[in-house]
Amino acid sequence: MSTIRENIEKIRENIAEAAVRAGRNVSDIRLMGVTKTVDDARIMEAIEAGIDIIGENYVQEGKRKIEKMGKTLEWHMIGHLQSNKSKYAIKLFDLIHSVDRMSLARELDKRSGNAGLKTKILVEVNVSGEETKSGVRKENALSLIKEIAGLRNLAVQGLMTMPPWFDNQEDARPFFVALRELRDRIIEEDLPDVVMKELSMGMSGDYRVAVEEGATIVRIGTAIFGERVY
Length: 230
Ligand SMILES: *Cc1c(COP(=O)(O)O)cnc(C)c1O
Fold this sequence. Notes:
The structure is a single chain. Strands 1, 2, 3, 4, 5, 6, 7, 8 and 9 form a nine-stranded parallel sheet that branches. The chain contains nine helices and nine strands. It has one domain: Alpha-Beta Barrel (TIM Barrel). It has helices at 3-21, 40-48, 59-69, 86-92, 102-115, 138-148, 173-189, 207-212, 222-225; strands spanning 30-34, 53-56, 74-77, 95-99, 119-126, 136-137, 154-161, 194-200, 217-220. Helices cover 43% and strands 20% of the residues. The protein binds pyridoxal-5'-phosphate. Pyridoxal-5'-phosphate binds at residues 34, 36, 57, 78-79, 162, 203-205, 219-223.
């Protein structure tokens, strides 16, 4: 058995155990393979081992891989998105996790309208407030989402976050809790075209805790593919 397949099976077990601990249904949690810098042969191995969502950080790199590997699985955009790449992003990706400002949302909406598409997005929230992080600040998230709700060609599906990196994954828990509580707060608003079904949170170092706190998509790179070589 390949290492990639073994890694994926181990992660699936860990997700299942975390789901049980939290009294959640394991089928409510999807495992994304994050493939920035990963070569095509290894991505194919992951797909053969059952990975059916691939997350890409860059539009160009994603475009090349999608053209090669096809649309038989879901491709998600998880990296910082420049507005001028919007017209490509809406056609390539099934879900864009990284919408964090109104200027980007407007551009995605306009391009989606031109293409006759309704684009599914998540709003990326910077729950830690670190200056270097992308994502809308937690305190500004609700007003951003209210504004996005007025755009007819976008459909908000939930929230995404990336907590600070910690040695001990327990330290990430408050940030996951904060995202879940924010989701619950937004659900109360009952906004048009806003459903809060996805919580995209948890990476290689902290996905177990993220699952315990309600993640519906965990985004895993190194724990599947090994350390990235840039
Ligand atoms: C790279 C990346 C990941 C995966 O990180 P790992 O620690 O390698 O699992 C997840 N989410 C985003 C947004 C990323 O850029």
